[in-house]
Write a structure and sequence with these properties.
The chain folds into two domains: 1-62; 64-165, Sandwich (Immunoglobulin-like). The protein has one helix at residues 9-62, and strands at residues 67-75, 80-88, 99-105, 110-116, 122-130, 142-149, 156-165. The strands form two sheets. A four-stranded antiparallel beta sheet has the order 4-3-6-7. Helices cover 32% and strands 35% of the residues.
Length: 167
């Protein structure tokens, strides 16, 4: 069936309908892609923010904790056994900590070890066989104490670091 211009109207309207449908399909696909991208972005950013929120909560707990080494005695002929006395002051004993990291050194060698568990009031921590990571014995004269919250792979270290040097 031809119209006034001599164009078959059924063929023309069929072609126009297909054009209209392809535009709608393209719009639906674009909207779907945008929604998928937004969903992926939401999940990634949400996970990052949750991790940072946990770190901030742990760091907030650290603020009131007062833990300092008051004495260190190392005995033996090598490897040395060292006892570090830690004093937890004031009101800071109400907050549980995950443990402490102790770094022993003598100016040329060092050894780091962790002791999990809450430290209450005054505590003596015994660290046996203080050696370097390569197994060399040394007698430390300094210990650096770092507090951490959490345990295992979830340790979050507090920013305050306390040190004791044997004089």
């Amino acid at each position: 069936m031809n119209n006034k211009r001599g164009i078959n109207s059924s063929c023309f309207s069929s072609r126009m309908k297909k054009r209209g449908i392809s535009g709608i399909v393209m719009a639906v696909i674009m909207i779907a892609l945008v929604l998928i991208a937004a969903g992926i972005f939401w999940v990634v950013i949400g996970n990052l923010l949750d991790k940072k929120a946990d770190d901030i909560a742990a760091a907030d707990k650290c603020l009131g904790i007062d833990l300092k080494p008051t004495n260190m005695v190392c005995v033996g002929t090598g490897p040395y056994d060292c006892t570090v006395n830690l004093e937890r002051g004031g009101l800071s004993t109400s907050e549980n900590i995950g443990g402490v990291s102790l770094t022993f050194s003598n100016g040329t060698s060092s050894n780091e070890t962790s002791k999990d568990g809450n430290i209450v009031a005054n505590t003596a921590i015994l660290v046996e066989d203080v050696q370097t990571s390569t197994g060399v014995d040394f007698k430390p004269n300094n210990v650096v104490v770092k507090i951490y919250m959490g345990t295992g792979n979830d340790k979050v270290y507090c920013t305050q670091i306390n040190q004791y040097t044997v004089v």
